[in-house]
Design goal:
It contains no helices and eleven strands.
């Protein structure tokens, strides 16, 4: 069982940037896809971005495409989410996830989850 711990969240003004990290422990994540999701107050959790095991392919929600970048460092067992040009509507708890159950990451269920990190974007 892999443990995932997110960090890097915080309060930022609109237009600013944050870099989230997801550190994995318990086993290597180098052979599995990874994803980032978010959940805003009163809303359902939604897909943000995902990346294949070797970083060769990335996937993004339309709402973040061109502003967010997912990446990974398998040597460090860590996945990142670089968030630029942040908007107030990006405010949410951001979750890291591992072990998708299908190759279409937009539809996949991820089996392992972190506890989340709060991102708040002020206008």
């Amino acid at each position: 069982q892999v443990q995932l711990v997110e960090s890097g969240g915080g309060l930022v003004q609109a237009g600013g940037s944050l870099r989230l990290s997801c550190a994995a422990s318990g086993r290597t994540i180098s052979t599995t896809g990874m994803g980032w999701f978010r959940q805003a107050p009163g809303k359902e959790r939604e897909f943000v971005a995902a990346i294949t095991w070797n970083g060769g392919t990335t996937y993004y929600a339309d709402s973040v495409k061109g502003r967010f970048t997912i990446s990974r460092d398998n040597a460090k067992n860590t996945v990142y989410l670089q968030m630029n040009s942040l908007k107030p509507e990006d405010t949410a708890v951001y979750y890291c996830a591992a072990d998708p159950n299908r190759s279409n990451y937009y539809l996949a269920e991820f089996r392992s989850w972190g506890q989340g990190t709060q991102v708040t974007v002020s206008s």
